[in-house]
Amino acid sequence: MATGRGRERQTAIYRAGAFGRTPSVPTDAAELERRAARRMTRQARAYVVGGAGEGASMRHNREAFDRHRIVPRMLRGAVDRDLSTTVLGTELEAPVLLAPVGAAQLVTRDSDVQIAEGAASARTPYVFSCQGGNPMEETAQAMGATPYWYQLYWSTDEPVVDSMIRRAESCGARALVVTLDTTLLGWRPQDLNLGSLPFARGQGIAQYTSDPSFRALVREQVRTASGPGEKVEVTLGAVRTLVSMTREYPGRFLANLRSPEPRAAVERFLGTYSNPALSWEHIATLRDRTSLPVLLKGVLHPDDAVRALEHVDGIVVSNHGGRQVDASVAALDALPAVRAAVGPEATVLFDSGIRTGADVFLALALGADACLLGRPHVYGLALAGADGVRQVVENVIAELDLTMGLVGVDRLSAITTDLLAG
């Protein structure tokens, strides 16, 4: 009898349905987004669902998937399917990781911990967001034995960069993912029309307010503004509690934005978190700064991909889900040329536009080793917390498994362009 994660997930849903219980999280991508968007606040919806400019890059991402056609092969007996793979030393039960999504705290309290709990339940690695609502150490505890990576935005302050890397190493991250395409925030009208930047309200900055190097910057800023004395110690204590204030008492924090302590942390963050001058010279220092495998995220041009692999261990082909540059090339359209340029042995991951297991299949066929799932897991979070994250991930992996069986492949290495039309 055929088994696998697809059959297991189907069976669980249909058995519950026999007793009148339907899934709390929709199994199709369109209804998942619609229901999650209704559950979110206007600010959360603008930030999570919205994109750059007029949304052309988001449309391009989905249109790229729609242009490809899978050609199933018959009578191949793919009864037992192996979805497992290893990426830079991290073992994956399926070629899916959860992408870092900043400011998920807009959706629910303790967002990153809940995402981690859902990822662990689905036995799926999670790339912790540098713009998280929980410190990486708390999120790591929620992952248990499931592996996790850490995303890094390159700060304008080099000691903060080093501190973040050290913390990621210390808390057990298996790899470092440096995001390249957000040295500046893209033009995002849905956020701008609401005047809503979560970081300016202290949301999504917990990695910084829990970081000793960043706190030292805040302490120095307040000392410079206020002069030395006892007030400095009070200010430092306030900075240390900023994480819990923003997570547990958002109203209290907002009411105190004009006070020196949290306001200084927010202002320092806005001037620190990402470096517009980031260059290949910065990237070249990573080999001396960490023993972790390093991936560069946001690569779309083949020449950039080749150069990246002179310095790091892997790349993520991504246009940031269409959130940074409008009218950008679709990430899926960029993927084949990148793979051709770097060769078959290089580590190439993919994100931007993944919604279903069939999407994962297409990305693998076009050259990805594994895929990062972004917005959909946040939609699951909005609908059902950690269990919603689990359901979304399990649905995507289930569809990938069933697609493999129906197409006639029993292992990931057999998913090639030969199975696509044209």
From TrEMBL:
<keyword id="KW-0560">Oxidoreductase</keyword>
<feature type="binding site">
    <location>
        <position position="179"/>
    </location>
    <ligand>
        <name>FMN</name>
    </ligand>
</feature>
<keyword id="KW-0288">FMN</keyword>
<dbReference type="GO" id="GO:0016853">
    <property type="term" value="F:isomerase activity"/>
</dbReference>
<comment type="similarity">
    <text>Belongs to the FMN-dependent alpha-hydroxy acid dehydrogenase family.</text>
</comment>
<dbReference type="GO" id="GO:0010181">
    <property type="term" value="F:FMN binding"/>
</dbReference>
<dbReference type="InterPro" id="IPR037396">
    <property type="entry name" value="FMN_HAD"/>
</dbReference>
<feature type="active site" description="Proton acceptor">
    <location>
        <position position="320"/>
    </location>
</feature>
<feature type="binding site">
    <location>
        <position position="129"/>
    </location>
    <ligand>
        <name>FMN</name>
    </ligand>
</feature>
<feature type="binding site">
    <location>
        <position position="320"/>
    </location>
    <ligand>
        <name>glyoxylate</name>
    </ligand>
</feature>
<keyword id="KW-0285">Flavoprotein</keyword>
<dbReference type="Pfam" id="PF01070">
    <property type="entry name" value="FMN_dh"/>
</dbReference>
<dbReference type="InterPro" id="IPR012133">
    <property type="entry name" value="Alpha-hydoxy_acid_DH_FMN"/>
</dbReference>
<feature type="binding site">
    <location>
        <position position="47"/>
    </location>
    <ligand>
        <name>glyoxylate</name>
    </ligand>
</feature>
<feature type="binding site">
    <location>
        <position position="323"/>
    </location>
    <ligand>
        <name>glyoxylate</name>
    </ligand>
</feature>
<feature type="binding site">
    <location>
        <position position="318"/>
    </location>
    <ligand>
        <name>FMN</name>
    </ligand>
</feature>
<feature type="binding site">
    <location>
        <begin position="351"/>
        <end position="355"/>
    </location>
    <ligand>
        <name>FMN</name>
    </ligand>
</feature>
<keyword id="KW-0413">Isomerase</keyword>
<feature type="binding site">
    <location>
        <begin position="374"/>
        <end position="375"/>
    </location>
    <ligand>
        <name>FMN</name>
    </ligand>
</feature>
<feature type="binding site">
    <location>
        <position position="297"/>
    </location>
    <ligand>
        <name>FMN</name>
    </ligand>
</feature>
<dbReference type="InterPro" id="IPR013785">
    <property type="entry name" value="Aldolase_TIM"/>
</dbReference>
<dbReference type="InterPro" id="IPR000262">
    <property type="entry name" value="FMN-dep_DH"/>
</dbReference>
<protein>
    <submittedName>
        <fullName>FMN-dependent dehydrogenase, includes L-lactate dehydrogenase and type II isopentenyl diphosphate isomerase</fullName>
    </submittedName>
</protein>
<feature type="binding site">
    <location>
        <position position="151"/>
    </location>
    <ligand>
        <name>FMN</name>
    </ligand>
</feature>
<feature type="binding site">
    <location>
        <begin position="100"/>
        <end position="102"/>
    </location>
    <ligand>
        <name>FMN</name>
    </ligand>
</feature>
<feature type="binding site">
    <location>
        <position position="188"/>
    </location>
    <ligand>
        <name>glyoxylate</name>
    </ligand>
</feature>
<dbReference type="GO" id="GO:0016491">
    <property type="term" value="F:oxidoreductase activity"/>
</dbReference>
<dbReference type="InterPro" id="IPR008259">
    <property type="entry name" value="FMN_hydac_DH_AS"/>
</dbReference>
<feature type="domain" description="FMN hydroxy acid dehydrogenase">
    <location>
        <begin position="21"/>
        <end position="422"/>
    </location>
</feature>
<feature type="binding site">
    <location>
        <position position="153"/>
    </location>
    <ligand>
        <name>glyoxylate</name>
    </ligand>
</feature>
